[in-house]
Amino acid sequence: MSKVLTGVVVSMALAVGLVGGYGYGRWYGVEGDAASGGDGAGLHNGRKVLYWVDPMHPWYKSDKPGIAPDCNMPLEPVYADEAGASGAGDNEAEKGKILYYTDPEDKEYRADAPGLNPETGNDLVPVYANDPANMAPGTVQIDARKQQLIGVQFAKPEMSSAHESIRSSGTVVLDERRVSRVNPKVSGWIDKVFVDFTGDLVKRGQPLLTIYSPELLAGQQEYLVALRAAEALAKSSVPGVKDRQQAMVRAARQRLQLLDLDEKQIAELERTREPQKHVTVYAPATGFVMERNAFPSQRVTPEMSLYTVADLSRVWVMADVFEYQMATLRQGMPVSLRFPYDEGKSFQGKVAYVQPGLEAATRTLQARIEVSNAGLRLRPGMYLDVLFNQHHEAALTIPASAVLDTGTRQTVFVHRGNGYMEPRVIQVGRRFEDRIEVLGGIGADDEIVVSGNFLIDSESQLQTGPRELGGSSTKPPAVPASKPATSQPAMGGHEHHRH
């Protein structure tokens, strides 16, 4: 009986030992596996580990677990079965083209071809474009599944025909060169008024009113006296008398012309030989009566404006443009005009003049646009939407949504391959509606993030302080060479991540 009991106890002890050993290996056996692999190969929680990275600086890689030397954070495993991590630098095709060759002990040494460093005698190693160690601080890796979840989209810069436009508002006003005013040149009294309301359409030569003026009456009588005297002296034999009298006739006639009697009125005076007590005043141009100050029996003087007549066949649109948009305006540039309430109707005009003065209160200046007004669709005082159109030569542009603008710096995220998104500071030029001109920082072959970049930027700033972001990636950052981490039990390094 005692032998049976002893056998049972031994069997139970062996089972407990096997289970405990398996559990210990599953939980704590990663160091031995990883160390034995030498290239990061090993098992952790039943999954193959490629290498270990610093969670704050993912370009730092180690073939063993432990503590990161720069920030004292526990290294985290990168598994072989993670999207974007298969190889992640081990496959030369995925690393991209070789940028240059460097000494593994002297990162500042660079060469265009493989060989030896003459100072140290070390073999030069290639530096790949898609190697995380050569990416700028703030680079983050996002697998394909997460990219789909946050809606990441990519695009390349394009050489496109640059079209620049400025949107503004304008007011229809009279063309000042097509406005006529009716002013009497003599004092007198209005007898009859033929155009008796504002807005009436008048034609050139149409009667407006009649006026009685003692000065006009005296001028007509003086002209008739000169005519009669010239006729009486026409047969005089006295030398020079006839010429002097003709000179007086011409002077009297010119005076009537200066008092605004036209040729027909003077001809009628010559025919009837009777002065006209009430002289008719005619419209000087065709247009609409914009202002009327003439009423029957009203006394008038030369400084009074009786009518204002405006030709509306062409009008001006005065558009306000902000001070920072002044450089875009060009005399003669085309302009599209639309009614705010009806976008179906549009008008075409051109910039005729840009006012030299700036409105101090609004920091705007006015551009004068000339528009043909066939059908009189545009009336003074109307508001219009104004679109200034300017075409430029083709330029390298990117979608405006790709640019993260802090006010002092413009940044985009460049896809470096294998899910790595690298922040890149760019130099921008003009904005063309939904695209921005790129002057430097990226090339036509760079693939940039155009959607989802705000979330990528947040993740980037969590890993690297905002002050470190945006450095130029033309020169890779100084990255410590991968070396075995400080010897330390793995249990202490990863208990933090488990809990």
Annotation keywords:
single chain; 499 residues; alpha+beta; conserved putative lor/sdh protein from methanococcus maripaludis s2 fold; Elongation Factor Tu (Ef-tu), domain 3; seven-stranded antiparallel β-sheet; six-stranded antiparallel barrel; 30 strands; 23% helix; rod-shaped; disordered C terminus
How would you describe this protein?
It is a single chain. The chain is an alpha+beta fold and 499 residues long. Among the domains are: 101-129, no CATH class; 144-159 and 394-468, conserved putative lor/sdh protein from methanococcus maripaludis s2 fold (Beta Barrel); 165-175 and 311-391, Elongation Factor Tu (Ef-tu), domain 3 (Beta Barrel), CATH 2.40.30.170; 184-304, no CATH class. Helices cover 23% and strands 34% of the residues. The protein contains 9 helices and 30 strands. It has helices at residues 2-28, 30-37, 92-95, 144-150, 214-232, 241-258, 263-272, 453-463, 490-498; strands at 43-44, 47-53, 61-62, 76-79, 98-103, 106-111, 125-128, 140-141, 153-155, 158-160, 163-174, 179-182, 188-193, 201-202, 207-212, 278-282, 287-292, 299-300, 307-310, 314-322, 334-339, 342-354, 364-372, 383-391, 395-399, 404-405, 410-417, 420-432, 435-440, 448-451. Strands 8, 10, 25, 26, 27, 28 and 29 form a 7-stranded antiparallel beta sheet that branches. Strands 11-20-23-22-21-24 form a 6-stranded antiparallel β-barrel. It is rod-shaped. Mean pLDDT is 79; it is low at 18-41, 83-90 and 467-499.
